[in-house]
Design goal:
Blueprint: H1 10-23, H2 28-42, H3 50-61, H4 71-74
């Protein structure tokens, strides 16, 4: 476990206190850990579920795969900003 001294503004302090109360947490470090977990799940790329990987392996064995160089361009998708 890593210990850190951090400076937070009043609004962030209120948000951490709300998280503590809502989820019954003991301290602000638990609230920060919860926020990091939620951020990871929502913003960062999650790992593929094992059942999806197995399904894709079966599909690839049957040869029903179309390879494209630029997926977004091929299907007319725009990049997120």
């Amino acid at each position: 476990m890593v210990k850190a001294i951090v400076k937070i503004d009043e609004r962030t302090n209120r948000v951490l206190n709300i998280l503590k109360a809502k989820y019954g947490l003991n301290d602000k470090s638990q609230a920060i850990n919860l926020m990091a977990q939620q951020f990871e799940a929502e913003v960062m790329e999650p790992e593929l579920r094992p059942e999806f990987i197995k399904k894709m392996e079966r599909v690839m064995k049957r040869g029903k795969v179309v390879r494209v160089k630029n997926f977004a361009k091929e299907f007319g998708l725009k990049k997120k900003k």
